[in-house]
């Protein structure tokens, strides 16, 4: 990205103009691929990137007595999308780790009906932290995968 016409930030406004380079070229190349690629190939690349992100997110997850937060980080491919537009995802399976939101965002002090305090939980945004750490890795995997797809299809 290339930033142009940057103005100093003020309390009232901040104007930034961003120019994205290469997006048209990428869109043109993807269009050229047409029927030359199989949606399964696209899904493989996306799933490879999602698995790399999941590994980093699992490493960020706190280790509790059961390890459910780490085990709950799963990947998959959206199967209800058109073949050439398949996308992968990383999420925490709520059946394995239904307490994710309590750890990620924290809680205020809580009490049982009897009045006994069970304290508060400090926020530990491990998923967001892991997602942010995994961005360069995911980007590199996607770029390499798409370059390989273009090369296999004979598109420069």
Automatic annotation (TrEMBL):
Name of this chain's protein: HK97 gp10 family phage protein
């Amino acid at each position: 990205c290339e930033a142009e016409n940057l103005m100093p930030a003020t309390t009232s406004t901040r104007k930034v103009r961003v120019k994205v380079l290469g997006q048209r070229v990428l869109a043109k190349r993807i269009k050229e691929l047409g029927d030359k690629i199989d949606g399964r190939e696209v899904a493989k690349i996306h799933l490879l990137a999602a698995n790399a992100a999941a590994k980093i997110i699992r490493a960020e997850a706190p280790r509790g007595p059961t390890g459910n937060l780490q085990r709950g980080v799963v990947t998959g491919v959206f199967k209800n999308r058109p073949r050439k537009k398949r996308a992968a995802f990383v999420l925490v399976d709520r059946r394995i780790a239904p307490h994710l939101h309590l750890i990620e965002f924290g809680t205020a002090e809580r009490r049982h009906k009897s009045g006994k305090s069970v304290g508060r939980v400090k926020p530990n945004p491990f998923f967001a932290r892991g997602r942010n750490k995994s961005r360069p890795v995911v980007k590199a995997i996607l770029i390499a995968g798409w370059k390989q797809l273009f090369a296999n299809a004979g598109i420069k």
